């Protein structure tokens, strides 16, 4: 079984005509560096718009942690979230929000219902990944971990995929869509804080790289257990 189709930091599930993104952490730029405050919203919008133009989804699911602040979002963060939902509608798709552990105030600003998890027509369950979903599914897609790995002296954001993950079903963990969120170096870990990744050594990292023309591609590697002897911890 091969990993699903990725585009940049997103995944596209063609059987469900759905694009999934996770961990936007809108407002993180405000918390880290006021000098990049004006760039955060446009950065998220530009990359989301590019992914939608390439994949042409009917639905876009935001898999949790749309907001960075744990409490009530700021007015600017609320504006960013609404702008993203508006961009999805402008592309002819339907925006769907799944709550993450940072999203306590999301229901007050999201233009529609906020779900704990969301089942797609192809049997995929999209959740955030900080809690174990109770619903059985054909496969699982989540975020939460912000996975990254260091290769050749460079830290790279990555996907995590295994054919036998949560409940022995195919499971995919997305990298953070936010370019301001810190990545969790998985090669330094024996386990991670997500019930959807019960065996970290079994996952295959999908490293985000750039081609010669600047486009993003995902390079899939063997399971982490096989890679560990070649990686610095």
TrEMBL record:
Name of one Pfam family that matches: Metallophos
GO molecular function, one term: hydrolase activity
Calcineurin-like phosphoesterase domain residues: 19-130
Signal sequence bounds: none
Protein name (Swiss-Prot/TrEMBL): Metallophosphoesterase
């Amino acid at each position: 079984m091969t990993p699903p189709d990725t585009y940049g930091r997103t995944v596209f599930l063609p059987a469900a005509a759905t694009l999934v993104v996770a961990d936007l952490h809108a407002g993180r730029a405000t918390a880290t560096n006021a000098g990049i405050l004006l760039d955060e919203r446009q950065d998220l919008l530009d990359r989301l718009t590019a992914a939608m133009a390439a994949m042409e989804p009917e639905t876009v699911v935001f898999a949790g942690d749309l907001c960075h602040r744990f409490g009530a979002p700021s007015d600017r963060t609320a504006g960013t979230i609404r702008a993203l939902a508006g961009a999805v509608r402008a592309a002819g798709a339907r925006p769907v929000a799944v709550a993450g552990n940072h999203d306590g105030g999301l229901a007050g600003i999201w233009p529609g219902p906020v779900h704990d998890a969301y089942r797609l027509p192809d049997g995929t369950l999209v959740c955030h990944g900080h809690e174990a979903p109770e619903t059985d599914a054909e496969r699982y897609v989540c975020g939460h971990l912000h996975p990254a790995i260091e290769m050749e002296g460079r830290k790279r954001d990555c996907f995590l995929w295994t054919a036998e993950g949560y409940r022995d079903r195919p499971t995919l963990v997305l990298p953070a869509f936010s370019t301001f969120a810190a990545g969790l170096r998985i090669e330094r870990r024996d386990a991670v804080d997500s019930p959807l990744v019960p065996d970290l050594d079994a996952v295959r990292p999908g490293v985000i790289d750039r081609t010669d023309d600047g486009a993003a591609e995902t390079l899939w590697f063997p399971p982490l257990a096989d890679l560990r002897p070649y990686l610095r911890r």
